[in-house]
Amino acid sequence: EAGVVQSPRYKIIEKKQPVAFWCNPISGHNTLYWYRQNLGQGPELLIRYENEEAVDDSQLPKDRFSAERLKGVDSTLKIQPAELGDSAVYLCASSLDVGAGNTEAFFGQGTRLTVV
Amino acid sequence: GESVGLHLPTLSVQEGDNSIINCAYSNSASDYFIWYKQESGKGPQFIIDIRSNMDKRQGQRVTVLLNKTVKHLSLQIAATQPGDSAVYFCAEAYTGGFKTIFGAGTRLFVKA
């Protein structure tokens, strides 16, 4: 079974340009997360979806970041315009119903974004 | 504020020895505590979790200990192998409004 698939793996853009990341979670996982991981630090949650609903976006910088999961399956995270400080690895993860005690999140390999 | 952090940023052990990675947390309301392993260039990988009403849980070569009195979590790896070299994160989770908060990580080096 395929794991969480993210694309692209790497992205280099100039500041002020837009960028988008795509994630396809594990089939049947209704919970999807986007995390940002800076070098040497742990992942920080940006947004969590339950099916197509964003149930926690409190850490998402809404002035420049947006996300969608229109059909409750794959998801896109967008940054517009990108800033130098956005350089990081963007991780997508998915899990089964967390309310039933499914704590295991399955992570993709991430997209390494470099803003120059 | 809420935080999950680690005592030691790096740990170097000899192959075959046991490893102990420690973590302190500040929020007593978490339902679960989780350990993740992250190898270079990969996303974090779930290792083991423990419910907040337990104090010990064992997996394959790993044991997680939870001391709620001092808000301390540890991961013990038996007979550490070169493949265990990675960064280890502790995390806490709430199943009500599910959120996983990660600490900064401990890098484990295994010397052959």
Care to describe what's here?
The complex is a heterodimer of chains A (116) and B (112). Helix content of chain A is 0%, strand content 47%. In chain A, β5 and β6 form a beta hairpin. Chain A contains no helices and eleven strands. In chain A, strands 2, 4, 5, 6, 9, 10 and 11 form a seven-stranded mixed beta sheet that branches. A four-stranded antiparallel beta sheet of chain A has the order 1-3-8-7, with no helix packed on it. Chain A is an all-beta fold. In chain B, β4 (32-38) and β5 (45-51) form a beta hairpin. By secondary structure, chain B is mainly beta. Chain B is built from no helices and eleven strands. Chain B is globular, with a radius of gyration of 13 Å. In chain B, 0% of the residues lie in helices and 56% in strands. The A-B interface holds A 4, 31, 33, 40-45, 48, 55-56, 91, 93, 98-99, 101, 103-110 and B 4, 32, 34, 41-46, 49, 51, 89, 91, 93, 95-105.
What's the overall geometry of chain B? globular
Average pLDDT reading of chain A: 93
The main sheet of chain B comes to: 6 strands, mixed
Care to count the β-strands of chain A? Answer: 11
DSSP, total strands of chain B: 11
Largest interface, with Cβ-Cβ < 8 Å?
A-B, 25 and 25 residues
Distance between the termini of chain A: 37 Å
- 3D shape of chain A: globular
Q: How confident overall, as mean pLDDT of chain B? A: 87
Separation of the first and last Cα atoms of chain B = 40 Å
